[in-house]
Design a protein that fits this description.
mainly alpha
């Protein structure tokens, strides 16, 4: 603790014996021992207090980390990891690509109504030979 060896202790004991005297030496050593014990106790309390402060600071850090983890939006973080610039989401979004899927039975139709048939293509003129692009692959109709 103080780096005092046996030689230094012997010198201190001889000086104490001469200065204090043999009659009061036991009482002086008892008092010094009590002071040393109190000093050790105070140092122990100080060290324990410092450890408690460090433990509380560590608990506060852990609480902050836990609160940050509770606020974490896992869905958004995964989306950012997979598609950071949002191009994939835009490509798959039917509204953005104008490729909406129209269901066969739409909710606007009543139960009795049937969907309108597809619009018929314009009929060929009676004198037309059927060479237009619309009738190119079909056989000519006979009346």
């Amino acid at each position: 603790m103080f780096d005092i060896g046996w030689a230094e202790m012997a010198v201190i004991a001889v000086v104490a014996l001469i200065v204090i005297g043999p009659r009061d030496l036991p009482r002086a050593l008892y008092t010094v021992g009590r002071w040393a014990g109190k000093a050790r106790g105070m140092l122990r309390e100080l060290q324990q207090g410092m450890e408690d402060i460090a433990r509380e600071a560590e608990l506060e850090d852990m609480k902050k980390k836990f609160d940050a983890a509770k606020k974490l939006d896992v869905k958004r973080e995964i989306g950012n990891a997979i598609d950071p610039d949002g191009q994939m989401a835009k490509a798959l979004d039917p509204v953005a690509t104008n490729e909406r899927h129209v269901p066969r039975s739409s909710p606007e139709l009543e139960e009795d109504e049937e969907p309108a048939p597809p619009a018929a293509s314009p009929a060929a003129a009676p004198g037309d030979s059927g060479s237009s692009a619309e009738t190119a692959g079909r056989p000519a109709q006979t009346s």
